[in-house]
Specification:
This protein is an alpha/beta fold. 37% of the residues lie in helices and 12% in strands. Helix 5 packs across helix 6.
Amino acid sequence: MLAETHGLGVSMLERLMNIDLYKRHETYGYNNRFISKLLRNYRSHPAILKVPNELFYDGELQSYADTKTTSSFCRWEQLPRKGFPLIFHGVAGTNERDSNDPSVYNMAEVDVLKEYLKALVAHFHKKGVNKIEPNNIGIIVPYRKQVEKINKAFQVDKDLRKENLENVLVGSVEQFQGKEFNVTLVSTVRSMTKLTAANQKFTLGFVDNERRFNVAMTRAQALLIVVGDPRVLKTDHNWNTFIHYCATNGCYRGITVSDAEEDHRASVEGGAATGETCCTTRPNTII
């Protein structure tokens, strides 16, 4: 990028933290005469906070959020594990681009997001909320075209069209910086049509930026839903950690890496006679 070429790829705060006065000592930590490290989190449910805390905050963050708010979705009927308000939904979609636009979108993920949004709106209605307020639901996506496709889905879908969804923010991570939402949905977009060599590197684009990852994972107060392709995301350390966390805690649904590998082997063996190879997947539906 042009900014990086001219030395503007590092923020002023990052440059300050490289000064010895502000650096963290291996034994004694930060000098408290110059640095005050904020350790209390007043936003998120502990289950949502767990992975970012371990990846970026040395496990030092403490949950001080209002439990009435953070537990408001702990009994939601769509949760794979009650009391654990977190979902990773594996979707084996396809990267798509329009001929006149380089931005990427993934319609398989849009379809899954629509179903979750319908379930969320129904839940709010049961609670007596007839109109979604600005901080109720936010949808984070890394690509402008995916934002466009999701917003269009609101207008085209017969069930969503009747709802008042103008307050549902759909946008990039940058638009969510400093904000918080009762529920946050994340669409990672990047996918692939077939499995290739295990050691191949995939281009995740904006998705593999750890700062954006941290912001996206920490906007939700009471419920976080992430939709993405685990075959691609597992190549990034942070995403692999998050997916493993969801799997071991019973809040993973949808296509898994092992499912895709099994289907891929079967399709290769079955397609050998015809010279065709493909990767089929099981339906991505909300249970």
